[in-house]
Amino acid sequence: MVGDGEAGQETVHQQMAREMAEVRLRMGRVRRKWLVLSGKGGVGKSTVAVNLALSLAAMGYEVGLLDVDIHGPSVPKLLGIEDARPTVRDGAIVPMAVAGIRTMSIGFLLQHGDAATIWRGPMKANVIKQFLKDVEWGDLDYLVIDSPPGTGDEPLSVAQLVETAAGSAVSAPRSGGASNGALIVTTPQELAVIDVRKAITFCRSVNLPVLGVIENMSGFVCPHCGARTDVFGRGGAERMAAEMKVPFLGAIPFDPRLVESGDSGQPFTQLHADSEAAKAFARIVRALAPPARPEERKA
Fold it and tell me: I need a labelling partner for 167 at 20 to 30 A (CA). Which of 33, 112, 154, 160 fits?
């Protein structure tokens, strides 16, 4: 009896080892992984993640966008492909291709948009692992991972898996740039900033480098006259970043067209490239990732 139990337990360990090897193999073709976090909901984290990915693609990089918000996937809607369904090729899931990026989300696998995902932690962790090891991401410069708010199962699973895959890249990064780590999104007001401190502490606890803090909805810029109104205050994230000794990457002003683009599923940074918000996204990306060299740009 004991022998049978030990043999069964060994089989489980072998399966876990095989799956981790598959994660490392797949993620070894991804040069950098950025986990986009927020301390609380309602700060526009998914909108930031999508537009960071689009801005990276506009610079000539090969980019993937993974939505691991199991209970509230937003990426399909933000990209206007909520009715899309992925296909399987040679035993791997083919990510959706849109606006120059490759993307995958649990939202593509639900029967309809109103379906609720009622899963406990282990099942969510297994799905996230599957997205990392079984999706045919191909060779990517950046994989932007949109995590749910807070410090629960999903960000913990991704952080641990990213750490497992760290250092497994099969080729050298292009022209330097930030490596694996977390980008933390907040709004300026103190209520949101308080929770960001917890997110930073979470990252440090799981050995996930904090690449920086982004202040979203940092003032409303009138699209007609250009006047600015600080609806949620101003500068809270920058002050907090200095106190927590993490980089402050920049502030993104509130623009009503960001809301309109998200609702209509049209990429904001492509439609409104000359807006102050789009320029802010571009500045943040340039601070983390230098432009791809001309010979490396996509055809």
Answer: 154
- For the chain of 299 residues, list the mean pLDDT of each consecutive stretch of 10: 51 85 91 91 92 95 93 91 92 95 91 57 81 95 92 80 59 53 91 88 91 91 76 84 95 90 92 92 92 51
Contacts of 145 (CB under 8 A, 6+ apart): 33, 34, 35, 36, 49, 66, 68, 158, 162
Q: Are 185 and 48 in contact (CB under 8 A)?
A: yes
Q: Are 149 and 39 in contact (CB under 8 A)?
A: yes
Integer Cα distance of 83 and 94 in angstroms = 15
Phi, psi of 55 (to 5 degrees): -70, -40
Q: Which of 227, 288, 265 is nearest to 83 (CA)?
A: 265
Candidates 113, 103, 107; CA nearest to 49 is: 103
- Cα-Cα end-to-end distance for the chain: 61
Tell how far CA 228 is from the center of its chain.
Answer: 29
| 205 CB neighbour count, 10 Å cutoff | 11
Assigned fold of 2-296: Rossmann fold (3.40.50)
- SS3 for 132-149, per residue? HHCECCCCEEEEEEECCC
Rg (CA), the chain: 19
Q: Do the bridges between strand 87-89 and strand 92-94 make them parallel or antiparallel, or are there none, so unpaired?
A: antiparallel
Helical packing angle, 276-288 and 45-58, nearest 10°? 70
Map residue 93 onto helix, strand or coil: strand
Instruction: For the chain, give every domain's residue range.
Output: 2-296
- Tell me if 79 sits within 8 A of 295, measured CB to CB: no
Amino acid identity, position 182:
A
Can you give the pLDDT at residue 170?
A: 38
